[in-house]
Specification:
The structure is a single chain. The mean pLDDT is 84. The chain has helices at residues 3-11, 16-23, 27-34, 41-51, 55-59, 63-76. It is elongated and about 40 Å long. The chain contains 6 helices and no strands. The chain is mostly helical. The chain has one domain (3-81): 434 Repressor (Amino-terminal Domain) (Orthogonal Bundle), CATH 1.10.260.40. The longest helix has 14 residues, at 63-76.
């Protein structure tokens, strides 16, 4: 779940309906995005403008999730970092 988007909506004092209206989406679509469905770039840009927060912050839970993602990436390309011979 994308709690940071919900936290920013609360910080702004917006209802889900108001947030949906500002983004031009339905509440069903908003709930899908909050639950982890891919968010189109135009909606991400609107969220960024509306909240004043980075897209990175809005999408990711926190440092633990980033560490896990970085580890997964690092392992997938580890062959690039081994010296020859």
């Amino acid at each position: 779940m994308r709690n940071n988007i919900e936290a920013e909506r609360g910080r702004l004092g917006m209802t889900k309906g108001a947030m949906c209206e500002a983004l031009g989406i339905t509440s069903k679509t908003y709930n899908k995005y909050i639950s982890g469905a891919p968010i189109p770039s135009n909606i991400l840009e609107s969220l960024q403008s509306l909240t004043g927060c980075s897209i990175d912050y809005l999408l990711f839970e926190g440092s633990e999730q980033r560490i896990q993602q970085w580890d997964k990436f690092r392992k997938s390309v580890s062959w690039c970092f081994h010296p020859f011979g």
